[in-house]
Amino acid sequence: MRGAVRPGLGPLEVAVVLRNLMQRLGHSQYYVQGGDWGHFIGSNLATLFPTEVLGFHTNMPIVASHPLVPVVTIFGMFFPSLVVEPELHSRMYPWGQKLAFTVEETGYLHEQATKPDTVGVALTDSPAGLAAYILEKFSTWTNPAFKKAGDGELLNKFALTHLLDNVMIYWATNSITTSMRLYAEHFSKRYMEHKMDQVHTTVPTWGIKFKHELGFQPDCILKLKYKNYLHSTIVEDGGHFAAFELPDVMADDIFKAVNTFIEFHEQKKKEAAENPIDPEPHKKAITVYDFTVKDINGNDVKLDKYKGHVLIIVNVASQCGLTSTNYQELNALYDKYAKSRGLRILAFPCNQFLGQEPGTAKDILTFTKDRGVKFDLFEKVDVNGDTAHPLWKFLKQTQSGTFGDFIKWNFSKFIVDKNGVPVERLAPNVNPSELEPLLAKYW
């Protein structure tokens, strides 16, 4: 419960720590439940480790930073029935009123996200200050109407002993500053660049929406990220601390969710049994030569045609900020090493990152020809999720990324040696020209 010894312990890292803990405890598969920070950490767990997390239950189901969220929200201001059910309209609109409440209630967030140690030192020094800081949230976030009461209606929903138990956890462990640093790490440029809310989560997901939760989003928004979002339970009571306030309601819902997750996986197994086609050929593959792909014209290409060549395999997009530099430098590498060293570059268009490769095969061909692309171009594919091309599943399992297997963005690059084995993985922000020293190891 003490502070981290070095900066960088954000929601992604906590997710990895918890996953490693589960492995050490001997649990290779498990369910995850979370609210507040538990939602973000649990969501990261489900996104990073989809074969280990069997189901994700959240009591704060939100997608915070997907670019389509404000678009859908504004659209709903004019056509609410197309966005949210009529009986839930008041949880989302009028937007001005909801925004005003959010601004009023997030002063703590701005302080903790920018100066966690400053407020942390003050609260660590004063048990009364710590109690006031924490218990005020138990009033307003349980029901906004409570803030008008002189005593905050704290004992309306909670026992005083239980409230003080909560405060004492922070006081006795001296961990209030630790809890606040998570805000700073989450809102750092380093974390935000991962764009986790734009990475699809295929793990079956279930949300419970309490009436006075701090934020509300309709299922149409949640499904932008959670591709197997199965159900939302609507509760006409409760607030942010639902597990504390309505533990029976929460517990019953979690068990219902787990039963549904079990049914989901059983149905998937049944479908797999009825369809004997191997859904995971990447797990049996040894080299990239075990795969057949389609080129940009729709023709089958067996990758064993590249035997004896060093390869760069890359996912590309036409409308990305990285497009110009990457296409220019990939062309330069091809010109320099295609004949002299046998380098081959295999480019796979992908539209999974903000829709930045929306065109048809013909559109992509026109775009690349206009830029003088000489290397091999293939059919548009998915590189993440259940629909990812088997070749890309193989590349990811062979060369895992820093925070998980999934491809983070356009222009992720894999170097494959002359034996067809993926040997290097480079992030999207690594320019092709920087690959020359690495390629030299495999000529």
TrEMBL record:
Q: Which domain of life is it from?
A: Eukaryota
Cited InterPro entries: AB_hydrolase_fold, Glutathione_peroxidase, GPX_AS, GPX_CS, Thioredoxin-like_sf, Thioredoxin_domain
> Which keywords describe this protein according to UniProt?
Hydrolase, Oxidoreductase, Peroxidase
Does the entry feature the keyword Hydrolase, yes or no? yes
All copies of domain Thioredoxin, residue ranges: 282-443
Q: Which PROSITE patterns match?
A: GLUTATHIONE_PEROXID_1, GLUTATHIONE_PEROXID_2, GLUTATHIONE_PEROXID_3, THIOREDOXIN_2
Per the record, the similarity remark reads: Belongs to the peptidase S33 family. Belongs to the glutathione peroxidase family.
Entry protein name: Glutathione peroxidase
